[in-house]
Fold this sequence. Notes:
By secondary structure, the chain is of the alpha/beta class. The chain has eleven helices and 13 strands. Strands 6-10-7-8-9-11 form a six-stranded antiparallel beta sheet. A five-stranded parallel beta sheet has the order 2-1-3-4-5.
Amino acid sequence: xxxxxxxxxxxxxxxxxxxxxxxxxxxxxxxxxxxxxxxxxxxxxxxxxxxxxxxxxxxxxxxxxxxxxxxxxxxxxxxxxxxxxxxxxxxxxxxxxxxxxxxxxxxxxxxxxxxxxxxxxxxxxxxxxxxxxxxxxxxxxxxxxxxxxxxxxxxxxxxxxxxxxxxxxxxxxxxxxxxxxxxxxxxxxxxxxxxxxxxxxxxxxxxxxxxxxxxxxxxxxxxxxxxxxxxxxxxxxxxxxxxxxxxxxxxxxxxxxxxxxxxxxxxxxxxxxxxxxxxxxxxxxxxxxxxxxxxxxxxxxxxxxxxxxxxxxxxxxxxxxxxxxxx
Length: 327
């Protein structure tokens, strides 16, 4: 029997789909690990979100600050929002029951973020992680971000950050790692005016790279671990990012084969912490793809692959053996 009542809401779903969800909730209550009821607003434990709806970003923000879970309701040729459970449409009762039970398991471990004294600001994950999730969602538009006395305007279409004063590297890093900020989606007209009036503009990619490279490792240990083996999807943008020579060496290795931090450090002669910082910067910039090593490589970090002996070399070796010639 269900042990407690959980609340479910819908964000951006078509009316017909929301009606189906309401009906299914009544039908499946005896088959879920907890009892569920429909909630008309975001004061819910779980939100079913349409990935293409602008309202879904509000739900994701609330998920970060209030311990709510988001579930992407994915139709054909659509992709789930980052860091969400997924429910495929058309919604089937068996899938619906499964996602509710998985949500119940996760909710046991969710701890809401600590709210600040105002209602507009909450202490959440660092701003840079929220911006990265926005980038991954693929939504286009303008966002006004206030951090203390600083205000930035982001165009997600151009990935440009506009500000009223020049942003030095230290200031960009401070803003990206801030956990107390206000976030407002603004219309295209307001966004275009803000961009035109800005004194200085910077790249979102530069902010992501700096924070990944220079932030304390413990800050992203759980949200952005780099303990696996990876390949590069594409090279870091040397025209916009401050790349060291060893960054280029590591990038050239990762475009050819999966490697981990220790292997990168061994081959390039740098420290493991520098290799991990490089991997984290690439992950923050959405450049990394985790890839398991071939079974023959074992479970350790990848090491540079030795070139295979050609078939002619093997043939000559066989002839030497037959003739008794030592190589």
